[in-house]
Amino acid sequence: MAAALTLCAGTMAAAGADLYRGKVTVTGQGEANRITGFAACLEDVLIKVSGAQKLAGDRRLAAYKSKAKDLVTAFSYRDQFSGKPIRDEQGTRDRPYDLTVAFEDSKIDDILRAFGLKPWLSHRPRLAVFVEMEQGPRNYLVTTDGPQSDLQRESLLAAADKRGMSIVLPGTAALAKSNITGADLRTAPFPALAPVAAEAGGEVVLVGRLVWNDRELGWATQWRMDWGDRKHSWQDRGVTFDEAFRRGIGGAAQVLSGNGDPGGRLRR
User: Fold this and answer.
1) pTM above 0.70, yes or no
2) What is the pLDDT confidence band of residue 2, given thresholds at 50, 70 and 90?
C-alpha cells in the first residue's frame, strides 16, 4: 500500500496573495456580469482565507457582496474559448471567461473580524483524498490517471484550489496492486491509511463516498476524517459532485482551521 497514492498537482500556498484571489466563470466582459462575479469571488475568498466553509450562503454576506467592487485591487479575464472562432453575431458577449479577482488583504481581514473569524495563515496540511463514486452498477475510486474519473479528478482539484488546500489522489495501478477498493475505504481505520498518505506527502486523510440518487437527481455524500483526537463526519444530499467536493474539502478546511466541526449537513 505504500505506493497507493501519487502526488496530484493541486498545491496552493498556505499564505500570501493567492488566498486573497478568487476565480469565477462569467459570460462576456460586461460590467453587470463582472459585478456579479466580484460578489461570488468575495464569498469564495472569505471562505478560503478563513477556512470557514460555514460562511457559504451566509445571508449576512449580502451587504458586503453588494459593495464587493470597492474591495477589488485588480481583475483579469481569460477567454475559455481562446483560439476558437466566434460562433455568432454577438461577438464576445456570450463567450465564457474566467474572471480572476484580487481583493485588498486588510479589507478581507476586517470583514472576517466582523464575523468573529480570522485569516488562516499558518501551515495548511495537505489532504490525502480517497473518494468512492457509486452510480447504479458503476463503482470506482477517483484517481490521478483513471479515464472514468477524469471529470471528478478535475473537479476535486478545482475544489481544492477554491478552498486554498492542496491534495494528493490515488493512482490506478497502485490501487490495483494494493487491492484497495471502495468497500475497503468504508471500513478501513484511519491509522491504516495514514502511512500510505504520508508516503505520498499527504498529512491528513479525508475519505468521501458519493452515491447517485435518481429520485433527487443528485449525489448523497458522506465525508470523514480524524483530527485533534476526534472523529469528524459530515454529509449532504441532492448536490452535484462539483458542489459535493467543495463541501468535502471545505469541511476538512473548517476542521483543520479550528472553525468548528461541519457536522450533519452543511449550509446550502
Assistant:
1) yes
2) very low
